[in-house]
Amino acid sequence: MSEPTHPCATLSMYDWPETAHAIDVLWSHIQNQLTQREIHAPVKLDRDTHPAALWSKPELIIGQTCGWPYANYLKEQVIPFARFHYDLPDCPAGDYNSVYIGHDDDDFDHLASPQAFEFVEKIAMNSDDSQSGFHVFSEITGKPAEEAIAKEKRVVTGAHRNSISAVANGDANIAAIDALAFELAKHYEPETISKIVVLGASKPKAGLPLITSNDNAHLVPQLLEAVQQAVEETPSDVLQTLLIQGVVAARPADYNGFKI
Description:
Blueprint: E1 8-9, H1 20-36, H2 51-55, E2 60-64, H3 67-74, E3 78-86, E4 95-96, E5 98-102, H4 114-117, E6 123-125, H5 138-141, H6 145-148, E7 154-156, H7 160-168, E8 174-178, H8 179-188, H9 190-193, E9 197-201, E10 205-206, E11 209-213, H10 220-233, H11 236-242, E12 244-249
């Protein structure tokens, strides 16, 4: 069995300071399950390299990405094999959605129709390759977000957590927030959450995929099995911190709707 010489792994998408220890514990169980299957994996997750740089590495054994990058530029390089089932309201197992937030009740008008949306002054977004923070706005505008949201209206924050703060502080009128990030913020930043209003929610879509390099195509069934077994063995308090309830399989077709 061929193995990467220096395998790497990342679970960065919800890696907050408050959740980092729980993520490390989860990874220790995943790494143990991989070792039992004679799959070489790093003892520690890579937090030093930007996640986007790791996603395309041939040495990637397990990573977690957003559905939009996968569908639009990673599809030829990686294979999605699993999705965590997060504890999210109104989302089927393995799915997620976005929570639309505003600074005050007047911001409800911005989501009332595509025409009203055009008059919003500032929109906070974590990045322009985020399904949940940017491209999801196409549900409201009926157009690709790149076309519908002028660059001068975009307040690029770098993280959903920062987007929530931007709206709370009045630096932006509205934002779309990954539902899991919003749940974490409710727990860890209740004061910030108290300064925003929830305007609505998007339709559920396939959740953030766990991916592996194409070089590991022959390992996909074992990788899925390893992650599923690891989650079953992870202490319940760790899973509760990460809002993980289980693991479902992921397939490339799950992300067809993310392509623009």
